[in-house]
TrEMBL record:
Keywords: Aminoacyl-tRNA synthetase, ATP-binding, Ligase, Mitochondrion, Nucleotide-binding, Protein biosynthesis, Ribonucleoprotein, Ribosomal protein, Transit peptide
Domain Aminoacyl-transfer RNA synthetases class-II family profile, residue spans: 1-240
Superkingdom of the organism of origin: Eukaryota
Single annotated GO MF: ATP binding
InterPro entries referenced in this protein's UniProt entry, alphabetically: aa-tRNA-synt_IIb, aa-tRNA-synth_II, aa-tRNA-synth_II/BPL/LPL, Anticodon-bd, Anticodon-bd_dom_sf, Thr-tRNA-ligase_IIa, ThrRS_core
Catalytic activity as recorded in UniProt: tRNA(Thr) + L-threonine + ATP = L-threonyl-tRNA(Thr) + AMP + diphosphate + H(+)
Lineage, top ranks: Eukaryota, Fungi, Dikarya, Ascomycota, Pezizomycotina
Location of this chain's protein in the cell: Mitochondrion matrix
Originating gene: MRPL39
Biased composition range(s): Acidic residues: 13-22
Protein name, UniProt field: threonine--tRNA ligase
Any one Gene Ontology cellular component term annotated for this protein: mitochondrial matrix
The protein's enzyme class: ligase
Annotated EC: 6.1.1.3
SUPFAM superfamilies per UniProt: Class II aaRS ABD-related, Class II aaRS and biotin synthetases
Length: 393
């Protein structure tokens, strides 16, 4: 029998006909990671030990609380658990906060605020000394970030204080995403321990040679579904190149056979899937290039519409980069780039990085004077897109 543990459990269900078992949906990963830690003997020299899990989680939300992707019954969390010594709490919290800031900065999200929730007045577990030490280390870790943070007195869980990272959406509403939480309950309930030598700071004469670790729960993204909802709202369809589902499209000036054939060849080369080869069944098939480690989503429009209508449609679909290919481009092994879509993507501060990258890659200081018509050698395009991706533009 599989028991359901944790808050918001969805409950049990019977197994298949003939099975003498019942099943439950697991709401959180914490117990599993505790059992994983307990399955081996650990020395104090090994700590901290960190586990992470992206498996689906379930929570039976009350009626009326479900809301799009921001609150769902089945969700995914970058659920991490750190088993550490008490004196390591500050360093692990500071590291986790740095990880959170890297995520927010990389995705161009913000502003966000940090909130520390401290020991509740009653019904908490653990000694006052341990709580005071844990809260002091959390405060020091928060101070080391250089960011402002707020205090939420008495709102910590009964098993430990926590730091909530709350992200502000476009309407000014704050959503809780990341969480960093200390837990002095589960290690005790699961009987977790590590070997510690006499003379060490965490050596306890009452349990000679053994000590109980502190558990740090951390989730940088929180619910991936909620994180995605806020990303969608933040970018409003104008995605940065490295995240975009429509990174680029090649538009042909006409339907000449040479132009159409070159467009498909260029798409394969630019996307990183190699040269196209004839196929009896489908006309062309991509052949991967082992020397290329980045691939991109490049579409092709060889329809009979006018170039103006093709460009208008590509802009409406918010392609980051629009490539135009005509007979002259075919003759000179080049392609024309329109990067105005990428210039409008967020965050706005990336525009200067884009300008510098284009100058460095294509040469000259006037590359972006005509961002709708940048002539680029075909062999240069994949490297340029790879640089954009690696700069998170």
């Amino acid at each position: 029998m599989y028991e359901v543990r944790g808050r918001g459990a969805m409950g049990e269900t019977d197994g298949e006909a003939g099975e003498d078992e019942s099943y439950g949906l697991k709401p959180m990963n914490c117990p599993g990671h505790c059992l994983l830690f307990k399955s081996q003997n650990h020395s104090y020299r090994e700590l901290p030990i960190r586990y992470a899990d992206f498996s689906p989680l379930h929570r039976n939300e009350v009626s009326g609380s479900l809301s799009g992707l921001t609150r769902v019954r089945r969700f995914h969390q970058d659920d991490g658990h750190i088993f550490c010594r008490p004196q390591q709490i500050k360093g692990e919290i500071a590291s986790a906060l740095g990880f959170v800031n890297m995520v927010m900065t990389t995705f161009g999200l913000g502003p966000y605020r940090l909130v520390l929730s401290t020991r509740p007045e009653k019904d908490f577990i653990g000694s006052l000394e341990l709580w005071d030490s844990a809260e002091a280390q959390l405060r020091e870790a928060l101070d080391s970030t250089g960011r402002e943070w707020a205090m939420n007195e008495g709102d910590g869980a009964f098993y430990g204080p926590k730091i909530d990272i709350q992200l502000q959406d476009q309407t000014g509403k704050y959503h809780q995403l990341s969480t960093i939480q200390l837990d002095m309950n589960l290690p005790q309930r699961f009987g977790l321990e590590y070997q510690v030598a006499e003379g060490e700071e965490d050596y306890n004469p009452t349990t000679p040679g053994r000590a109980t670790p502190v558990l740090v729960h951390r989730a940088n993204f929180g619910s991936i579904e909620r994180f995605l909802a806020l990303l969608i709202e933040q970018y409003g369809g104008r995605w940065p190149f490295w995240l975009s589902p429509r990174q680029g499209i090649i538009l042909t000036v006409n339907q000449d056979e040479a132009v159409v054939d070159q467009a498909h060849q260029a798409a394969a080369k630019i996307s990183g899937f190699g040269a196209l080869q004839p196929s009896q069944n489908q006309g062309v098939t991509p052949t991967p290039l082992s020397s290329v480690d980045s691939t991109f989503l490049i579409d092709v429009d060889t329809s009979g519409q006018t170039l103006g209508k093709k460009i208008q449609r590509a802009k409406e679909m918010k392609y980051n980069v629009i490539f135009v290919l005509g007979p002259k481009d075919v003759a000179e092994s080049r392609i024309t780039m329109d990067i105005t879509g990428q210039m409008q993507s967020k965050p706005e501060g990336n525009l200067k990085k884009l300008e510098q990258l284009m100058v460095d890659r294509l040469g000259g200081g006037k590359v972006l004077q005509k961002p709708r018509a940048i002539a680029v050698e075909l062999d240069q395009v994949h490297g340029l897109l790879t640089a954009m991706e690696r700069e998170y533009l």
